[in-house]
Amino acid sequence: MVPLSILDLSHIVQGSDAADALHRTLDLAQHAERWGYRRYWLAEHHNMTGIASAATSVVIGYVAGGTSTIRVGAGGIMLPNHAPLLIAEQFGTLASLYPGRIDLGLGRAPGSDQATMWALRRDTLSADRFPQDVMELQSYFGDPEPGQAVRAVPGAGLRVPLWILGSSLFGAQLAAALGLPFAFASHFAPTLLDQALAIYRAHFRPSQVLERPYAMLGVNVFAADTDDEARRLFTSVQQAFVNLRRGAPGPLPPPIAGFADTLAPLDRAMIDQALACSFVGTPDAVRHGLADFAARTGADELMVASGMYDHAARLRSYEGLMGRG
Q: Which of the residues 27, 69, 134, 324 could staple to 319 if both were Cys, CB 3.0 to 4.6 A apart?
């Protein structure tokens, strides 16, 4: 099996709050470290009542401070929401506090709706500057040039590892051009996965940080003692996707057995397509499914997301995936 990592959205579940979500995030990270997961990433989303990781760098510091060996990072920071210098300072601080353990994945989506985008003071052209902003950020993590007027302190010389995130072909092209590792969001947008990987690998230019392409792919995993129980747990994220597409996102709902069978054909087709890279069943079946997926795609690493309502069930799923328990 290729290395496995975790993407945690710090879900706020129905009947709970952000504090509980963040405490569960740290608990999962501490378990994941013991079980042998390679990375633990948090994501930037704004104005989402079901996600507690909006202040992503703060949550990364909380998780890194509560662990000791696992890599902790952003999957990702939506760079057009921020000045590159600010992100360089934030992640330079994290890398100074937790050397050799911090990753910085970068995306160009707003991570929010249009009204929230304006509240973030993001302008309509900010996404167009994404390649330039990535290169500016890279320069802040390099060695300062003589007479350089603006430096990231801390940050300069720390060479925090950068990743390009994507759910389309743009990210694949940029990651290839810059010679950076590429993480594809196949856990919720799998349509262009094969095409994006082909572009990334065909056009990759070796860089000072990476000699050959390195692709990490997102997948959803729901493992339980029985297939029926795994399918029941999976319905929480199915409900969340339907709610999001209907414009009514909210806290993660409890599972409802047979939920997908109650949906209209268009809603069922939507979640089947969006969640096509999902592996649901017993731990052995899920491991076999992931191995086949990695072999088919040539993935160098898999990043596992598991939006489960019940924290104990989520722990058992991640533990079983690593052949523990």
A: 324
Two structure tokens written together for 39: 């990375």
**Dihedral sign from CA coordinates of 235, 237, 238, 243:** positive
- 68 close to 33: Cβ distance less than 8 angstroms: yes
Whole-number Å distance between alpha carbons of 223 and 16: 23
Q: 147-179: per-residue pLDDT in tens? A: 889 999 999 999 999 999 999 999 999 999 999
Please give the sequence-ordered ranges of beta strands (E in DSSP) within the chain, or none if there are none.
4-8, 39-42, 71-78, 102-107, 162-166, 182-184, 215-223, 278-281, 301-305
For the chain, list residues with pLDDT below 50. none
Give me the pLDDT at residue 117, please. Answer: 75
Q: How far is CA 7 from the centre of its chain?
A: 5
Q: What are the tens digits of pLDDT across the range 231-240? A: 999 999 999 9
Question: What's the CA gap between 266 and 47, in Å, rounded?
Answer: 27
pTM of the model: 0.95
CA distance 316 to 312: 6
The Cα 217–Cα 182 span in angstroms is 8
The rounded Cα 269 to chain-centroid distance in angstroms is 24
- Type of residue at 261: D
Is the C-alpha dihedral spanning 310, 1, 292, 189 positive or negative?
positive
Q: Where are the beta strands (DSSP E) in 190-246?
A: 215-223
CA nearest neighbour of 305 among 40, 50, 17: 40
